């Protein structure tokens, strides 16, 4: 009689635990490549007989699977499987049930597969479709190109669903919480859909699916698909002009899940709006979901060198007003991601962290994407390697030259210290602190190694990095600058010579955005005859008033202060620039009750309005992977009076044990993008 399969079990839950995909494996089987998974077959009528019955499997992925491109495989159950391909081995037989261990090669294509069983007795054969499963990259497998050795790093860069993204300014680094949520419902299927809407897939489906074994290829596709500047159906539209009324302000997002779900529900039309950290965070979610270790990185004073000469010219009037003459910009900070992978396509030595930058800035191969660029190649100045290294090299190494344009049109170079590529930051592994990774990108400033790298990159270091020996100028903050309050900045001037110096000091403050654009003036001082005795130091304060900056403060909360010191005798100009970050109020979060899995918890959330104006349309948004089911939105019924407190309670039932972040965002008409979070340790169910 024929061997007939009556029932089968893909053992989603058990395989999910083994493959660290349990949160994805409720409805479907999700496994990692190169690692065995077990399925159980139950036959009706008679038992499986070795030698009489033959069993084989078919796995197929993509719209038109073929064996040559690795998108289809046919393999028999055998005790001696081939080394290089898929394999199936019998684990145990109990009566009419049979457990079989299946395993993909560690270089298999990732994506959604269909699994079919073929049974054959004598000449009679039947086939039975067992279902679909998803195959992911496997950072735990030494032969996978994304293999990462350290278990704590794998936990942070693959499994952690929450993190911190660094923002603010170089002198005042802030962290904002982010829900990556790569294992939340629907996210995996949206990530796979993203691969299937990419232009390379639409042009040549076979070629695209057969390249999906390569994290370099996947990284390039994801980098291009997160933005929509190529007329593809990218996830996010970027906007930087503070006009966000027809969408969400980039500062309001608190996680990737909401963005990816909106993209899917809009029929894969771009979601409005993103800026660099939003593009980077969503790319990080997609890469972690697919199994590629990834982290969000922030570069302070990031140079955007459009003409590729590694020099960024800025022009100032004698009163410190900036003139926009070129498209070159210094971004206050810029975020990208690093993903961990081997680079067999390059000469040895470039495996490890690779920069991928999904923010649309530069066309590469006719597409807005950047990377993967090996961090090691950036550090060594090897600009000819793939992909897009000159662009990232400039972001961390370009030189800034400030020209002061006089009333008669003549220009004078000013001296100042080097400013680009500072405090490159990412979240530490396993804790909520900042790790400075600048040393991965560049040798110490002024070192012999740095000079060698610049020579190789044909980067003519301007000799202007040295400061004027005679006069030294810097801008200092007396205390934190809080939104709604007046504050002082100080110009600190030192005369390091043995002669008296007479100067003009211009101090000018303007509201600013993080990409370098500047708004109206909100404070200025012009001292025409400032005399400094030999070796004397002076402090000149500038008071910046809320009534002058409040109306024009952008959602980036930045004020750019420029100090210009002109020495009458020589005409030399010394410049100092500082970005002052205006701090938002704190959101207080108290957890009431004993945090335990599947038991109700209460969060008490409160915020004080720091402004002297009433806030309208006040909304709190709360989310946390494993804690809340999706986003919880609380709209306040009343406006918030000046200096009043808003307080509310939120009930939620944590689904998962362990450490989780409860994240809160507050929005209103005059105070936006206020973020807070609280770590909560949830005890497992007894």
Automatic annotation (TrEMBL):
Its cofactor is Ca(2+). One of its GO terms (molecular function) is GTP binding. Ca(2+) binds at residues 397, 399, 445, 450. Residues 268-360 form the Transglutaminase-like domain. Its EC number is 2.3.2.13, 3.5.1.44. Keywords: Acyltransferase, Calcium, Cell membrane, Chromosome, Cytoplasm, Extracellular matrix, GTP-binding, Hydrolase, Membrane, Metal-binding, Mitochondrion, Nucleotide-binding, Nucleus, Protease, Secreted, Transferase. It catalyses: L-glutaminyl-[protein] + dopamine = 5-dopaminyl-L-glutamyl-[protein] + NH4(+); L-glutaminyl-[protein] + H2O = L-glutamyl-[protein] + NH4(+); L-glutaminyl-[protein] + (R)-noradrenaline = 5-(R)-noradrenalinyl-L-glutamyl-[protein] + NH4(+); L-glutaminyl-[protein] + histamine = 5-histaminyl-L-glutamyl-[protein] + NH4(+). The active site is at 276, 334, 357. It is found in: Cell membrane; Chromosome; Cytoplasm, Cytosol; Mitochondrion. Signal peptide: none annotated. Its main location: membrane. Binds 1 Ca(2+) ion per subunit. Belongs to the transglutaminase superfamily. Transglutaminase family. This is Protein-glutamine gamma-glutamyltransferase 2. The lineage of its organism: Eukaryota, Metazoa, Chordata, Craniata, Vertebrata.
């Amino acid at each position: 009689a024929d061997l007939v399969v009556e029932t089968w079990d893909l053992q989603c839950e058990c395989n999910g635990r083994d493959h660290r995909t349990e949160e994805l494996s409720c409805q479907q089987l999700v496994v990692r490549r190169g690692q065995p998974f077990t399925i159980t077959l139950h036959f009706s009528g008679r038992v499986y007989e070795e030698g009489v019955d033959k069993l084989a499997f078919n796995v197929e992925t993509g719209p038109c699977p073929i064996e040559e491109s690795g998108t289809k495989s046919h393999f028999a159950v055998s005790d001696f499987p081939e080394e290089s391909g898929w394999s199936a081995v019998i684990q145990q037989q109990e009566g009419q049930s049979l457990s079989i261990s299946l395993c993909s090669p560690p270089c298999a294509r990732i994506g959604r597969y269909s699994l079919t069983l073929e049974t054959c007795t004598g000449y009679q054969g039947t086939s039975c479709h067992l279902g679909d499963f998803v195959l992911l990259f496997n950072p735990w497998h030494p032969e996978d190109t994304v293999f990462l050795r350290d278990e704590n790093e794998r936990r942070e860069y693959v499994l952690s669903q929450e993190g911190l993204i660094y923002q603010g300014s170089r002198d005042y680094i802030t962290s904002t919480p982010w829900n990556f949520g790569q294992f939340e419902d629907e996210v995996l299927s949206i990530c796979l859909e993203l691969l299937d809407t990419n232009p390379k897939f639409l042009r040549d489906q076979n070629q695209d699916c057969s390249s999906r074994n390569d994290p370099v290829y996947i990284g390039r596709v994801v980098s291009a698909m997160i933005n929509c500047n190529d007329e593809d159906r990218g996830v996010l539209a970027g906007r930087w002009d503070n006009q966000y009324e027809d969408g969400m302000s980039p500062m309001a997002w608190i996680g990737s899940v909401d963005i990816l779900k909106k993209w899917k529900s809009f029929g894969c039309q771009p979601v409005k709006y993103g800026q660099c950290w939003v593009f980077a965070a969503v790319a990080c979610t997609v890469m972690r979901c697919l199994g590629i270790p990834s982290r969000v990185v922030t570069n302070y004073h990031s140079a955007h060198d459009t003409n590729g000469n590694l020099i960024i010219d800025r022009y100032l009037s004698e009163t410190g007003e900036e003139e926009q003459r070129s498209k070159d910009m210094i971004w206050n900070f810029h975020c990208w991601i690093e993903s961990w992978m081997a680079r067999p396509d390059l000469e040895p030595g470039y495996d490890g962290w690779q920069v991928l930058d999904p923010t649309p800035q530069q066309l590469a191969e006719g597409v807005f994407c950047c990377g993967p660029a090996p961090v090691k190649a950036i550090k060594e100045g090897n600009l000819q390697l793939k992909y897009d290294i000159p662009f990232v090299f400039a972001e961390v190494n370009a030189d800034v030259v400030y020209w002061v344009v006089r009333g008669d049109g003549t220009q004078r170079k000013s001296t100042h210290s080097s400013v680009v590529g500072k405090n490159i930051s990412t979240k530490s592994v396993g804790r909520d602190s900042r790790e400075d990774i600048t040393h991965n990108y560049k040798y110490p400033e002024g070192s012999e190694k740095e000079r060698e790298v610049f020579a190789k990159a044909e980067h003519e270091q301007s000799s202007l990095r040295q400061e004027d020996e005679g006069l030294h100028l810097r801008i200092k903050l007396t205390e934190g600058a809080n939104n709604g309050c007046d504050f002082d900045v100080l110009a600190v001037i030192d005369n390091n010579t043995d002669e008296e110096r007479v100067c003009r000091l211009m101090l000018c403050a303007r509201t600013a955005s993080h990409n370098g654009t500047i708004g109206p003036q909100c404070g200025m001082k012009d001292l025409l005859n400032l005399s400094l005795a030999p070796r004397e130091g002076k402090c000149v304060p500038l008071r910046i008033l809320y009534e002058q900056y409040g109306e024009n403060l952008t959602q980036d909360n930045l004020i750019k202060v420029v100090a210009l010191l002109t020495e009458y005798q020589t005409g030399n100009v010394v410049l100092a620039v500082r970005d002052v970050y205006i701090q938002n109020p704190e959101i207080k979060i108290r957890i009431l009750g004993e945090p335990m899995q599947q038991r109700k918890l209460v969060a008490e959330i409160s915020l004080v309005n720091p402004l002297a104006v009433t806030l309208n349309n006040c909304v709190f948004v709360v989310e946390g992977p494993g804690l809340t089911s999706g986003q919880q939105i609380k709209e306040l019924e009343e406006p918030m009076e000046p200096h009043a407190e808003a307080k509310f309670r939120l009930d939620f039932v944590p689904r998962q044990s362990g450490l989780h972040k409860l994240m809160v965002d507050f929005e209103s008409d005059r105070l936006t993008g206020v973020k807070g979070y609280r770590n909560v340790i949830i005890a497992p169910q007894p």
